[in-house]
Amino acid sequence: MTSTAPNPARQHADDRDRVGRVETHGTEHIPASERHGRPSGLFWVWMSANVGYLYFVVGGVLVLLGLPLRDALVITVVGNLWWALVGWLAVSGPASGSPSVSIMRAMFGIRGNKVFGAGLGVLIGVFYEIINVAFATLAAIALLGHVGITLPPGGEWVALAVIGVLSFVIGVYGHATILALAPWFSAALAVVFVLLAVFVFGAADWAHAPEPLPVAEHWALVMLGFAIVASSPLSWGTGADYARYLPADVSKRAVAWCTALGGFLPAVLIGGLGVIAGTAIDMTDPQLTIGEIVPGWFTPVFLGMIVLSSITNNVLVAYSTGFYAQALAARVSRAATTVVTGVASTAIAGWVLFLTPSFLDTLSASLELSVTVFGPLVSIYAIDIVLRRNRYDGASLDDTRPGSPFWYRRGVFPAGVIAMVAAMTVAVLSANTTLFVGPISTALGGADLSALVGPVLGAGIYAALWLTTDPYRDRAKRPVAASAAIIEAEADAPAVREEVPA
Questions:
Q1: H-type helices in 235-358, by residue range?
Q2: pTM for the predicted model, two decimal places
């Protein structure tokens, strides 16, 4: 009688990505022997992270800008179409087995990536961590007050610390734990938002119409609103992080669709709900004014939803920010970098919440400016996948020594750096925020084109340089692409078998 004995090497590998255990893999690629899962899991991961309060607030901001109801709803849909790009980025995960920050070495070089991939990634990641911690802390304090618990002096800082711990602990555990909890978080949050929708639709002013503006001013507001909405999907240049454990031969179409829809659907539905709520209440501080249109019993449920949704969004943000930070400090584990960036974000969130004059103004301006950075980065990443036909060798990407395949010129790939700097510069000059109005925006009557010109210029300049400069002008000089034969051979390696007596 023949039986199959467990493969000790495979068992040890699986221990690196198990529910309830801290994932030990970091920025290095995942070997084919450790790949598992289905694309459908990506839908729930992205759904749980995006069934969130931030979209409700952003929808309300569109109304506060003075946009008509129809225009605000259209902007919510169109701005979130950028999720299709996030889905496209995810297909590079199974191809390479690497997180996005490692794949970006192909676009910027080993050294260049420390600035334009890892460096900017840490800044944007920490920024969104701060937003989520701040939202959750405000809601937690309001919830405690609603149930009759008065915090002593300094108690708000204790609430902040507790929220900080809850926001980052799941991200520390990593991939398998995130996948296991995502469907449950999604279901719980979806129920609350469905109930909220019932109350919002019942109170909505469907005839809401602000004072009409001149055509130029109206379109300036439309573009500003588009930039604010687009800032959320364009900040997710991390699609590969959650897809890298999937087998290399998985359907690219399924990976892209599951990722894109997991982000797009909740962003549009909840953002649209925020727009409609803005016709009935003052959305400057919805966690307080929501009581005007919902029954008393629902207010603590709503506040609890804000806490939970902010934490679930921070799970993915913290996980990817840990990768970005690890790419800057390779000898530090991903779990450790997640903790360090989490502590820093929590401390800064306290400063923003309790020591700055207007959290909402700071939030709006920061969202608008983040587009100028991540729009070009995401588009360069997306066009690189097209140009390389999604062929990335994870082992080569892990090699950061001088002279390695992606060292290029002194550690920098000029095409990526030039495209990034040029596109960012033009995007900043085209931005219109409460902190800064660029000269291009001023010349266009205040229209904010940063969410369009940044990505388009980034992709266009990069593609032109990629096709006309070394090493890509000469095929013989290009870094090696992943070999499908090697991947398949590694995946199909026979398990250890032994004969035992019947």
A1: 239-243, 252-277, 286-289, 298-328, 334-355
A2: 0.83
CA 170 to chain centre: 16
Mean pLDDT by 10 residues, the chain (502 residues): 39 55 78 86 87 89 91 96 94 92 93 90 85 88 86 86 85 74 83 92 88 83 88 86 90 94 94 94 85 90 88 84 84 85 88 68 65 89 92 89 89 94 94 82 85 94 89 70 43 39 33
**Whole-angstrom distance, CA of residue 34 vs CA of residue 13:** 6
| Residue 111 to residue 412: CA distance in whole angstroms | 6
CATH number at residue 76: 1.10.4160.10
Q: How many domains, in total, are found in the chain?
A: 1
Question: DSSP code of 273?
Answer: H
Residue 378 lies in a domain: no
SS3 at position 498: strand
> Comparing C-alpha atoms, which of 117, 109, 100 is closest to residue 403?
109
In-domain check, residue 420: no
Answer yes or no: is 7 within a domain.
no
SS3 432: strand
**Which strand (E) or helix (H) includes residue 2?**
strand 2-3
The identity of residue 458, as a single letter, is G
Question: Exposed, middle or buried, 53 (CB in 10 Å: 0-12/13-18/19+)?
Answer: buried
Q: Determine the structural domain holding residue 312 and report its residue range.
A: 32-225+237-361
Question: In this structure, is residue 133 part of a structural domain?
Answer: yes
Give SS3 for 3.
strand
